[in-house]
Amino acid sequence: VGYIGGWTKQVFGSEQLALGGLAGAMVATFFTFLPSFIFILIGGPAIEASRYDIKLSAPLTAITAAVVGVIINLAVFFAYHVLWPQGITQAFNMQTLFTGFQWISLLIGVAAFIALWRYKIGIITVIGACGAAGLVYKLLV
């Protein structure tokens, strides 16, 4: 975005479009990451100094538990929408539970879990393999 902005605004004139684009990219990158670095460099020592203060560590522990709950909620939400893309439209019982169930999605998910935990394959490799498996399935069916 910064490169395109520097290019289109002709920062250094119409003869130096690439240089203007590079300048715009550097400015955009600098001001994208600068606030994070400032927070870390200035706020880091203050956070470390309050590490053993129970008045601050207790609420942060509760916040950590809440974040774990949100992550689990999102996992269940996405699992439901992946395994039952049309939703469960009938009364919930064992016969209707598997109506519209996506077995291939479950198989790919279990294979990914085994690849990650048992065989310690890298996450990028597993994501690529799962995407390829889903694409092959979609093209064949």
Give a structural overview:
The structure is a single chain. This protein is mainly α and 141 residues long. It has a domain at 1-49. The protein is 76% helix and 0% strand. The chain is built from six helices and no strands. It has helices at residues 2-8, 17-49, 54-83, 94-97, 103-117, 123-140. The longest helix is centred in the N-terminal third of the chain and has 33 residues, at 17-49. The relative contact order is 0.05.
By secondary-structure content and strand pairing, the structural class works out as mainly alpha
Query: What distance lies between the first and last C-alpha atoms, to the nearest angstrom?
Result: 39 Å
Total number of beta strands: 0
Which shape, going by the Cα principal axes?
flat
Q: Name the beta content range.
A: under 5%
**Order of helix and strand elements from N to C terminus:** HHHHHH
What's the mean pLDDT score? 92
> Uncertain spans, ≥5 residues at pLDDT below 50?
none
Largest sheet: none
Radius of gyration: 25 Å
**Fraction of helical residues:** over 70%
How is the quaternary structure best described? Answer: single chain
Count of individual helical segments: 6
